TrEMBL record:
Organism encoding this protein: Methylobacterium aquaticum
Active site (record annotation): 10 (o-(5'-phospho-dna)-serine intermediate)
GO annotation, biological process: DNA integration
Family classification: Belongs to the site-specific recombinase resolvase family.
Superkingdom of the source species: Bacteria
UniProt-recorded name of the protein: Integrase
Amino acid sequence: MARIGYARVSTLDQDLTVQLAALKAAGCDIIRSEKVSGSSTIGRDELRTVLAFIREGDTLVVTRVDRLARSIGDLQDIVRELRGKGAGLLATEQPIDTSTAAGKAFLDMLGVFAEFETNLRRERQAEGIAKAKAAGVYTRARTVDPEAVRRLAGEGAGASAIARQLGIGRASVYRVLKGAP
């Protein structure tokens, strides 16, 4: 009976250190981690590895249920898969332990709230974009015109001047001049 830890953050610049330390303190024999969005289980290779590896009597340990899934459907699918293999789920920072009735109930409630939070965030983002568009502040990122960059460079303009004139970043100018796509 092994304790298998799973840690996840959404972006590359976020840090896994706190989660990894908590999983080690919880007695996890194996810990897998990844930096990928939790809004779907698609593309979460480490989670797939854990779910393929976990055996009867093992426990999947996470710090919080939102590290495992952001939608109630995904959460239920994961718990069903664990249950089908005779494995359990434990969260170190929440009273979730699928070996108890109270833990199962709390898991379901937290899953609903995690999905609700995700939906609220999407609504706020959409409202913000609509408001910015209405105010004329929201614009699509400019696309780089490689021919214009090369033409200006051929005329002797420097990277900063080209970037300023075309409204793009200097890094984009350098990429074009180096022949990168």
